[in-house]
Design a protein that fits this description.
The chain has 10 helices and 8 strands. By secondary structure, it is of the alpha/beta class.
C-alpha cells in the first residue's frame, strides 16, 4: 500500500517545519509506504527534517535531460542528489498548464528511471471524455504513448481531471473498472504487473470507500495532504485497511 502526498505549490519553510514536528511524533507502520512531494525548493529541507522516519521524499516533476541549458527545469540527477526516491511525471496540471505531451512525458519518465528514481506516472480523462463514456480508451492511449521502455520502478496514478480539487470522485464501479483496465492493458503489452494509485479529491470522508475498491493499491493525495492531521488520518486508514487481512 502506498500513500503519496502532493503538496503542489503550497507550504513554506515555517509550515513545513511545523508539519514535520507532527510527523516525528507519529508511529508509522511497515505495512504502508509513504512519500511526500514538496515544492522543489524544499526537497532537501524536508528530507533533513524527516530523514530518520520511514517516509520518502519525491519531486513533483523532472526534465528529460540530465543537464544543459534548460532554465527553470530540474534534472532527475539533482532530485536524486537531494534525497528524492520518487518523482511525479505527467500530472494533469502540467499536461494542461505546461502543455506537456505524452511523448515528452515518456522521455521524462525514462530519464527519471535511468537516474534511479521511482516514477509515479499520472493518467486521467477530462469531464467530456468521462461523460461520453470514452474514459477507458482515453487513458489507454495515454499509457500507450507515455509509458517508458523500462518501468520496473513505476507506479500508475489514475487521476480523473474532473475530480482533482472538486470534491467529486468517480463511482466505485468506475474506479474499479479503470484500475482493472490499466493493469490488464499494461500486462498484455509488457507482461509486467503494475500498482495503480487513485488520486482526485481523496479525503477523510471517502478514503475508506476508496481503499475497499478492488485493484486500488494506494492513493495520491492533494489538498488533504496539506493538513498534517488529515494526512496522518488517511495514512492510518490505509494501515487499518491492511490490518483487516
Amino acid at each position: 500500500m502506498f500513500v503519496a502526498a502532493n503538496w503542489k505549490m503550497n507550504l513554506d519553510k515555517k509550515l513545513i517545519f511545523e508539519f514535520s514536528k507532527h510527523l516525528n511524533t507519529f508511529k508509522f507502520s511497515s505495512k504502508v509506504e509513504a512519500c511526500i512531494f514538496p515544492p522543489m525548493t524544499y526537497v532537501d529541507y524536508l528530507n533533513s527534517l524527516i530523514s530518520n522516519l520511514p517516509i520518502s521524499v519525491g519531486g513533483q516533476n523532472c526534465h528529460y535531460k540530465k543537464s544543459g541549458a534548460y532554465t527553470g527545469e530540474v534534472s532527475p540527477l539533482f532530485l536524486k542528489d537531494t534525497g528524492c526516491k520518487y518523482v511525479i511525471i505527467g500530472h494533469s496540471e502540467r499536461r494542461i498548464l505546461n502543455h506537456e505531451t505524452n511523448d515528452e512525458i515518456k522521455l521524462r519518465a525514462q530519464s527519471a528511471i535511468n537516474s534511479n528514481l521511482k516514477v509515479v506516472l499520472c493518467v486521467g480523462e477530462s469531464l467530456i471524455d468521462h461523460e461520453k463514456g470514452s474514459a477507458l480508451k482515453f487513458v489507454e492511449e495515454q499509457l500507450l504513448e507515455s509509458l517508458p521502455n523500462n518501468f520496473e520502478n513505476l507506479l500508475i496514478a489514475y487521476e480523473p481531471i474532473w475530480s482533482i480539487g472538486t470534491g467529486k470522485i468517480p463511482s466505485v464501479n468506475d474506479i474499479e473498472d479503470m484500475h482493472q483496465h490499466i493493469k490488464k492493458f499494461i500486462f498484455e503489452k509488457t507482461n509486467k504487473k503494475v500498482k495503480v494509485l487513485y488520486g482526485g479529491s481523496v479525503n477523510l470522508e471517502n478514503i475508506n470507500n476508496i481503499l475497499n475498491i478492488v485493484n486500488v493499491d494506494g492513493v495520491l493525495i492533494g489538498g488533504s495532504s496539506l493538513n498534517v492531521k488529515d494526512f496522518l488520518a488517511i495514512y492510518s486508514a490505509a494501515v487499518k485497511h491492511l490490518d483487516k487481512f
